[in-house]
Write a structure and sequence with these properties.
This protein is mainly β and 286 residues long. It has one domain: TolB, C-terminal domain (Neuraminidase). It is globular, with a radius of gyration of 17 Å.
Length: 286
């Protein structure tokens, strides 16, 4: 058992998600999907941007801009001016769905999952944006999650949370899937949510309902877990100057006011110093 994570930002997000450590800015970003907000901690100071739609995940493009996934498109967001530039529609003709989990891959692409706004069965999919093209990779996904990649870029991970299984699939030299996905690990403690890989290729999975982030070796063995004082951890990310701090978003969604008041960790953002050795998140190539 690893030492527990501590709260670094007490804001109680309804659905905290998508933590990203920007390697150039040395800055943590994350979302509250339901509140349509992007947050950041910049040298200990919290800043917030309000949007007019669901926003859920991001990759970095350069030191001043992010690629952000929203309920109907992927857009470039200028952090200095607040200007948005739509890059490509994302299921824009389907009002049922929104974006959910996403992450940049080591080839310069960006994978983004969608899901029904009411978690409708099979309404979502997993897509990849690569050099201007958005292509659907996997369909009939209910709750897309756990998108991350082996450090050498030869394997991708993802899940449909309702199945309890994190899948893996091989990638070609350009980062496109090859062959059929198979099961990497079956999660029987809570439900698998967001994931990130570390420098050694271990996969760290936030487990909704279990109050922990679990670390699995590349062969699927459970190595350790980091306790999080929140009922619903949603996604991890490595960051900090030496990339050894594990950041974790959580959600207060579905919890009553008494439970939120009893445990202020529900919906807060956490950090566990010295949890493991991360690696820089790759940038998105437009």
């Amino acid at each position: 058992m690893n030492r527990p994570a501590r709260i670094i930002d007490p804001t109680q997000c309804t659905l905290g998600e998508g933590p990203l450590w920007h390697p150039g800015r040395q800055q943590l970003f994350w979302f509250d999907i339901v509140a349509h907000r992007l947050y950041t901690l910049d040298h200990g100071q919290r800043r917030m941007w309000q949007f007019d739609r669901f926003v859920s995940a991001a990759g970095w493009i350069d030191d001043n801009s992010l690629l952000i996934a929203s309920e109907r498109d992927l857009f470039r967001f200028d952090l200095t001016t607040g200007v948005r530039e739509s890059l490509v529609p994302l299921e824009a003709d389907n009002p049922t769905t929104r974006s959910n989990d996403g992450r940049a891959d080591p080839h310069g692409g960006f994978w983004i999952g969608t899901m029904g706004k009411q978690a409708e069965t099979g309404a979502g999919a997993i897509h990849r944006y690569f050099r201007g093209e958005l292509r659907r990779l996997f369909a009939d996904i209910s709750i897309s999650n756990s998108i991350c990649f082996a450090p050498d870029g030869d394997r991708a991970y993802f899940c449909d949370s309702v199945t309890g299984k994190i899948m893996q699939v091989g990638l070609d030299d350009s980062g496109w899937p090859v062959g059929a996905p198979d099961v990497f690990v079956s999660v029987d403690t809570g439900s698998p949510d967001g994931s990130v890989t570390d420098a050694a290729g271990n996969l760290w999975n936030a487990q909704w309902g279990a109050g922990r982030v679990a670390c699995y070796a590349p062969d699927g063995r459970l190595l350790l877990s980091v306790p999080v004082a929140a009922a619903q951890p949603s996604c991890p990310a490595f960051g900090g100057a030496d990339l050894t701090t594990l950041y974790v978003t959580t959600a207060g969604e579905g919890l009553d006011s008494a439970e939120l008041a009893r445990n202020p960790g529900n919906g807060a953002t956490f950090a566990a110093e010295g949890a493991g050795q991360g690696r820089p998140e790759p940038g998105v190539i437009l």
